[in-house]
Known about the structure:
D-Maltodextrin-Binding Protein, domain 2; alpha/beta; 3 domains; single chain; five-stranded mixed sheet; 18 strands
Amino acid sequence: xxxxxxxxxxxxxxxxxxxxxxxNAYAVVTAIPEDDPSTGTTQEVSGVAHLPLTISNxxxxxxxxxxxxxxxxxxxxxxxxxxQKIQMGSHNRxxxxxxxxxxxxxxxxxxxxSCEEAAEEPREPTxxxxxxxxxxxxxxxxxxxxxxxxxxxxxxxxxxxxxxxxSMGQSPQAIPNRLARGEKADVVIMxxxxxxxxxxxxxxxxxxxTELADSSIGMVVKKGDPWPDIKTVTAxxxxxxxxxxxxxxxxxxxxxxxxxxxxxLGIEDRVKDKAHMIECIPVAxxxxxxxxxLGFQQVSELLPVHGVDLVGEVPDEVQLITRYAGxxxxxxxxxKEGEALLSFLSSPEAQDIIHAAGLRSVRAENGGSSCRSSHxxxxxxxxxxxxxxxx
Length: 391
């Protein structure tokens, strides 16, 4: 956004709002520094930081992981970093910098969903509490669920409130950590192994677990670039060796790539200098900018990004499949509606959309075991009847 010349020296205005309903404190810092004399224009941006907030010579402490990428770079767009602070002085080339601060959403950890997901604000409820279904959700399934929200809300009359966070890890946003500190939810949708741990800890309603989808790792290139061959393990290995640069996520898929995949292919030492973990932003967005030749992440997280082509999935022999499942929380306010949501997500109509979002359907597994048991029992009964008749 461009503005006319301002001419005034840098100023800083602090506005704090306390959300009584949610007991969350918010603060907005607006800094109005001098215009950039070299261009005669200024720019307007926004970012996220955390309480406690202190103002001293227009300096705002922040958590780096929650800020947009351009705020993390040294001197980027006029912001200067010093001891993890944003200094909004008179030399700042930004005319208006607004920082929305929420004290109960800290920075993202190294495992699980990426930082930009964890910093995302949940959808705020617009109806009474009992008419909302709160879902704590891991990043790999979020895009699929968002495609289904309007359909489900119109059908059920309930609004779905999404609270994003990784399935595990030390991050305060991690779903188990949110629950442990008393945050409320009706449903969790997360990596299956992590959900199993919650079940063992009696955090979920017995028998409410619903298998939802499998997620695989895919590879993208910048849109218009030639597609490398990754159809076989040998071809895939050669593609990695020939690539100028490789990017992978800071989530579970990236951890697998850096700690296991390269070792399995015997190329760990040969790619270590050109393979980089991308923190806090989608891997595909960096590939789209031309910063990296190849990008790896969950297919469901690659598809929504423009400017890239999905070449395909990692070969099956070296693939990592991540299972996503959901369950109703033991102390859910809307237990029945939580069950209804999971039932909807496992229905054929929803599974088709989930598959289109880059996930693998597991519809046959939901209720499938009882169905198979029934067929087996019928077969045994018929066999016994035939034996009785014949003998």
